Amino acid sequence: MPNDGDGDVIDIRGGLIPGPLRQATDPEETTEWEQVSPRHIDVADWERFETYVSEIFGAFGMDLDMPGTRETPNRFLKAMFDATSGYEGDEKLLTAFPNESAESEYNQVVEGGISFYALCEHHALPFHGSAYLGYIPNERIIGLSKLTRLVRLFARRFTVQEWMGRSIADALFDLMEPHGVAVYLEAEHLCTQMRGVREEHSRTVTTFWRGTYEENADLRREFLDLARSGGLKP
After folding, report:
1. N or C terminus: which one in the chain shows less Cβ crowding within 10 Å?
2. Burial of 187 (0-12, 13-18, 19+ CB in 10 A)
3. How far apart are the first and last CA of the chain?
4. Tens digit of pLDDT for each residue in 54-101?
């Protein structure tokens, strides 16, 4: 969050929150999904960024002297800050539970579709879609809500779909040490829909496999059937 320079954090919704919010975890001692590090931006820097945005929007043609646009640069910055909150981490991911019925390497847990919105690191335009996650428990299971948190941890930042999916798969494998992990992402990219080739109806699909899924075609097929056929959709 923006910081006023005296140890307090400016809540971008208005007002002050006593700071610091939390001692950041040492990045050198943790994997990426374990890192919890709130962002701090000084008031002077925030105002400077707002000036830059005003200049850019004005140069592009926006009239910033209208009731509906005077606060647009500030609102834009707040929206971008919120849309990239994945960089701050999620401490609620740091819990997994013993698996009391780890009897088979072939019992899948599959969750989806988990909606996500991300910002393309090439053009800073959104891409959005659904994620399907599967894993084969070993000695741990995880609360299903944590799978949603994991997806949004890596979606709410500047990224590309390929890197996002790889990061989710690696983090889930690291978090749980399961027999296998599967990730299926399908998304629409505004960088191709509203600019460039302007392809309005294309969707990009990416898959990622770890452990037993890499070796077992039947497991991959079962997982993909669930994701593609709508077996997990209402």
Report:
1. C
2. buried
3. 37
4. 999 999 999 999 999 999 999 999 999 999 999 998 888 877 788 776
110 in Cβ contact with 55 (< 8 Å): no
| Pairing, β 109-120 against β 158-159 | parallel
Tokens found for residue 125: 């335009």
In angstroms, the CA 164 to CA 86 distance is 11
Residues in the chain: 234
Cβ atoms within 10 A of the Cβ of 213, count? 25
Give the torsion sign (CA, 192, 228, 180, 133): positive
Entry pTM: 0.80
Q: What is the C-alpha separation between 112 and 130, in angstroms, rounded? A: 7
Model confidence pLDDT, tens digit, residues 11-43? 333 333 223 223 334 445 556 666 778 888 999
> Both tokens of residue 93?
């991911």
Half-sphere exposure of 217 (CA within 13 A, CB side): 0
Q: Is the peptide bond before 113 cis (omega within 30 degrees of 0)?
A: yes
Taking 3-state DSSP, the helix, strand and coil percentages for the chain, each rounded to the nearest 5, stand at 40, 25, 35
170: part of which helix (H) or strand (E)? helix 161-176
